[in-house]
Amino acid sequence: PFVVTDACIRCLYTNCVEVCPVDCFFCGEVMLVISPDKCIDCGACAPQCPVSAIVPDTDPLADKWLPINAEFSATWPSITHKREHPPDADAYRDQPSKFERYFS
Ligand code: SF4
Ligand code: F3S
What we know:
By secondary structure, this protein is α+β, with helices and mostly antiparallel strands. It has a single domain (about 1-80), classed as Alpha-Beta Plaits (2-Layer Sandwich), CATH 3.30.70. It has 3 helices and 4 strands. The strands form 2 sheets. The protein has a two-stranded antiparallel ribbon with strand order 1-4. Strands 2-3 form a two-stranded antiparallel sheet. The longest helix has 12 residues, at about 60-75. The radius of gyration is 12 Å and the shape is globular. The structure holds iron/sulfur cluster and FE3-S4 cluster. Iron/sulfur cluster (SF4) binds near residues 2, 19 and 41. FE3-S4 cluster (F3S) binds near residues 8, 13, 48 and 54.
């Protein structure tokens, strides 16, 4: 499956959800995750993300983020359409290590 990583945190552009053919995105307060059980590995979402937050499970970042995507996709609500991104989303673009910066 493809995996959402911490580049999504506080950006939430949601371009990715529009192209997913199987509706496997789930929305938390500060980022989305992909359900690894539902993802069919089509790859359509990754190039839609302006901050390259979505990677295949072969990417080294997936070691950390695949379990997080699996855990939270089981409880967060589904999101199937693009939403307005947070007003300050651009301020968080391209910040490195957002998870460590904001959640540890
Ligand atoms: Fe959806 Fe395809 Fe992205 Fe998986 S790779 S989340 S199926 S758009
Ligand atoms: Fe996040 Fe990128 Fe989608 S910022 S909401 S993974 S378009």
